[in-house]
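Course assignment 3, question 2. Fill in each field.
Student: A.L.
Task: Predict the tertiary structure for the chain below.
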Amino acid sequence: MSGSSDYTLTPNYHLYKPNYDADVDNWGYHLNNNADTLDAALATSGGGAVFLPLSGAVPMRGALTLSDGGTAISQTAADGRYLQQAQGDARYLQLTAGGTVAGATTFSSPLTLADGGTAISQTAGDARYVNVAGADTMAGPLTLTGSLIYTATGGTTARAAQDRAADVSLNVADFGGSIQAALNALPATGGTVMLEANKTYVVTAALTSAKPNVKVTAPSWATILRRDPGYNSAGQLTLTGANAIIEGFTIDGNSVTGTQFEVSVAGAGSIIRNMQVINGGGTGHINLQGQNSRATDNTVTGLGTIPSTQRGYGIWAINHVTVMIDNNTITGTGIDGIGFDGSGTCVIGNTVSGCHCWNGGQGGQIASYYTSTGGVGTSPLVIGNYIGAPGSNQGMGIECWMPGMLVSGNTIENIPQAGIILFGNSITVTGNSIRNCGGTADGLVVTANITDFVITGNRISDDQATPTMRYAISIYAGASDRYTIAGNQCLPNTTAAISDLGTGTNKTIVNNLGASNRLNTATTMSGALTLTGVADQVTVAPGAAGLATMVFSGAATQRKAIRFQTAGVNRWVFQSNATAEGGANAGSDLELQCYADAGGAALYTPITVTRATGNVGFSQGINLGSTTAGSSTDLSKHIAVWGTTIGFNATAGAFNYVGGASTTHSIQVGGNAIFNVGANGAVVVGTGYLAFGSGASGANIRSGAGAATGTQPSGSLWLRTDGSAGARLYVSQGAGTWVPVASV
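Answer field:
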């Protein structure tokens, strides 16, 4: 019988297995077929070979598949494309004499090497072997031309060994509590040193490491490094390698005086974060010396007392390096809460209070430094910091020395010194709030001879029951020049809003609430300019030359005007007109124009002054008068004749002429005096006569020597100057007839 009921097949090579008392007539055939299958599977040549021939008693665990792009090759001792397994121990692979695998050998399936547990002896100096497992060491160097990549135990991602160097983490507890021993044990590429939780380490010597990528950390601030009272020669913890990190614990200076910092980083890209650093009695608490290093989210608490020497800085970054100092809380330090001098340094979002106790509080709680050694730093940013809290001996708010500095969005309040003080040029101070500062100082101070600064949009106030601030903004006496003070709110203070003692002429002080506005003569402004006066006035004050001058300049054919408006509509325009300047002083005459309610074109030009002659024209008439009595001789209330003590005044019902007591005044026609008024009030008609009526028909009065002659209208009189009684007065009867009046 035959069929599946007569036999079964093996799972891998499908060999026939006859069932009991079955496979009749076919079992011989199936047996021969099994032999052929096994022969083919165990062959060492041909396309179907699946095993390599073994030499000696070396066992193989698992299949080892070698391929060479499909080319049949012969294994020989000189063929470097294969690994020769020898020495009777599976823990080693023997390479070629040079210690490398030559050629483009490819493993198409995993190569598994296992230690059979047999102790072996590696020949000294033989670099051809790699110790794969067990406790043996390598007697010679192993050279890798690429990265050594492996997967950590329990991991899922393979990474290069070089990248795993930073993963090294050592616990100080494994080194008998010695932090320095743990630092020393890190590889050259760095790693992490974990301090023990809730433990206080007494530091008696400097803890240091120069390796890169070193991180010193702890679970919480309950882990403390405390300075030994007898140790004051150096810092407690100093990392000088690049990319160092110090975080998460407390460093206590224990009030020990000396020349040291408590914690320092000096390598580029290093960070001190989430640290509590307290009671620094030496030079300072945190020291940043590496380019692009950072101090963030730290709490620094100084002694809060007045040191005998200049010491106790909060965060110190004086080495001409660019750093970031942000979101720290700093209180009660002996010198600056924050000090820096590097170009592009950012000081952002810190809270600083009660700092700079030394030297009567004269320094800054945040201070930029201007030093020539190593080059002057420029353009730092001090933004969004808070400086405040009471304290009788704390320093100024922000001390500005570095050119190009931006001080913006800071709040400074309740300190006994100036809120912000400028010692350097080209500084911008904008959008800050300065409140209740001073003592006898000012809110914002610019020291002598500072140039090119801008102070805009700040709010400076003193709302205490008894104000202590002297000036909101004070420019000290000196040659300060080229500056703008604009748009600041200078609210109640003791003396005045702004004191400007700078002698420069290129400056603008405008639109400051509570202060007078100033546009200097050398200031050029384009476009429309709106001046909003304080107390309903805009004042032009004298400059250095003693001149209070406002200049309107333009081409000869352009009007230069001052407009007076109601709700934006012209009412009056006082201007130099656009008449061309054609020579001989012609053109650019002065005008006063008036406008209708709706504006539009001018209604009239009632006053014109011609530049060439000085002539004043009144096109719409003149009303003259005075509130002074018509009999008054006070020429200040009269219209006076230029260059004389003579004038006149018109009042209701009277025209008062004022002249000297012994002076005769005349009315002249063509240069001839025809009407004279003497000092005694006598009226003298010159060579003319007095006529009554109209035209030639009216009677007149004449005088002269000799008898009356000529034809005059009837009733005319002749007064003879050389006559006697009966021949002095003549009356005309008309037609040339004169009758003397007897007895006259």
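Instructor remarks: The helical segments are 27-41, 161-164, 179-185. The first strand starts at residue 7 and ends at 9.
Grade: pending
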